[in-house]
Amino acid sequence: MSVVQSYIDEQGLAHWPDAPLGSEKYYGIDFDDLLTAENDIWTSITWTVPTGMTKMDEKEVENEMRIKLSADTNGSHKIICELESSEGMDTQKFIQVMFINVI
After folding, report:
1. Where are the domains of the chain?
2. Was domain 3-100 assigned CATH 2.60.40.10?
3. pLDDT tens digits, one per residue of 19-48
4. Strand partners for 27
């Protein structure tokens, strides 16, 4: 299973690489740097996916949160991943992916 990793653009915004409409891919967000306490673990993971996209699956692999997405609408889609930990830390990461119709 291949996972698409994010990158930071020139404006400091997080993105996943562009994908064709209808493709189904796993995308990952690494939260390893946020778990600072020795026994801290994630207790809650919530993905928010906009209209025009479908969440096919989600999973956690070590401290990377993964989501499998497909889109049927052209354009840039903002995905939100919210996490809470056993040590009381909560955070949100926003990331965008552009789905395009490839002819």
Report:
1. 3-100
2. yes
3. 888 888 888 877 766 666 667 777 888 889
4. 4, 67
